[in-house]
Design goal:
The chain contains ten helices and twelve strands. By secondary structure, the protein is an alpha/beta fold. The protein folds into two domains: about 5-90 and about 245-260, Quinolinate phosphoribosyl transferase, N-terminal domain (Aldehyde Oxidoreductase, domain 3, Alpha-Beta Complex); about 100-245, Aldolase class I (TIM Barrel, Alpha-Beta Barrel), CATH 3.20.20. Helix 8 links the parallel strand 9 and strand 10 (about 215-220). The mean pLDDT is about 95.
């Protein structure tokens, strides 16, 4: 029970409230805010969307207006805003990367460094910001990383082990050196993760691969150097910070009018 709301708001009061952006950014999660309202509201409520997920908005802009019982609005407020602010923050951060990469042919991509329980929503927010998704779970695709290489006894050995066990799955292999790039390319990797390569080293890897596999850069990436990496010809830039470190986009709920 929301004791403050029960004490201060008449049971039969109805209000209209606006979700309003306090900062400029990219919106994601309006449908999730509505879903929260659908759970909390004890009666039917009316919704008017002023923007869509993926839209750029300015500070002060109305995003969503809701008319419902006032108690229900105020009870749902924080849960709806927590999700909407979080997802819009991810979309806003992703949009900054997508803008930097525009015209290069490379896409910014998330990783599995997501909040427990929110992976699907956070990956949706990345798409709203113009990014692409990596695998959703450990079973969607194989990603052979350094610890798998150690366990299997080598890069080629690890790749072969996965291909033999799961022949229909796409396989991405992490490479730390150009020699490893050549090795996994010869083994038949679908996608090669270039771990902590410099832009110059990335350009060399692109030349070695020559279109025979997709390439993804990871590590050392920032908004300042993202375009330099993208212009080497890689297909993806993997940025875990999209989901594990993006600040929220500040959005508030303003009660507009109350009817007895």
């Amino acid at each position: 029970m929301d004791v403050t709301t029960v004490a201060t708001v008449p049971e039969d009061a109805v209000a209209t409230a606006d979700f309003v952006a306090r900062q400029s950014g990219t919106v994601a999660g309006l449908n999730i805010a509505e879903a929260v309202l659908s759970v909390v509201c004890t009666e039917e409520f009316a919704v008017e969307r002023h923007v869509a997920d993926g839209d750029r908005v300015e500070a002060g802009q109305k995003l969503l207006s809701v008319t419902a019982r006032t108690r229900d609005l105020l009870t749902a407020e924080r849960s709806a805003l927590n999700l909407l602010c979080r997802l819009s923050g991810i979309a806003t951060a992703t949009r900054a990367w997508a803008d930097v990469l525009e015209g290069t042919g490379a896409q910014v991509r998330d990783t599995r460094k997501t909040t427990p329980g929110l992976r699907a929503l956070e990956k949706y927010a990345v798409r709203c910001g113009g990014g692409a998704n990596h695998r959703m779970s450990l079973s969607d695709a194989a990603l052979v990383k350094d610890n798998h290489v150690v366990a299997a006894g080598g890069v080629a050995e690890a790749f072969k082990a996965v291909r033999d066990r799961f022949p229909d799955l796409p396989i991405e292999v992490e490479a730390d050196t150009l020699d490893q790039v050549r090795e996994v390319l010869d083994a038949g990797a679908d996608l090669i993760l270039l771990d902590n390569f410099t832009p110059a080293g990335t350009a060399e890897a692109v030349a070695v691969v020559a279109g025979r596999a997709l390439l993804e850069s990871s590590g050392r990436l920032s908004l300042d150097n993202a375009r330099a990496y993208a212009e080497t010809g890689v297909d993806f830039l993997a940025v875990g910070a999209l989901t594990h470190s993006s600040p929220i986009l500040d959005i508030g709920l303003d009660l507009r009018e109350v009817e007895a």
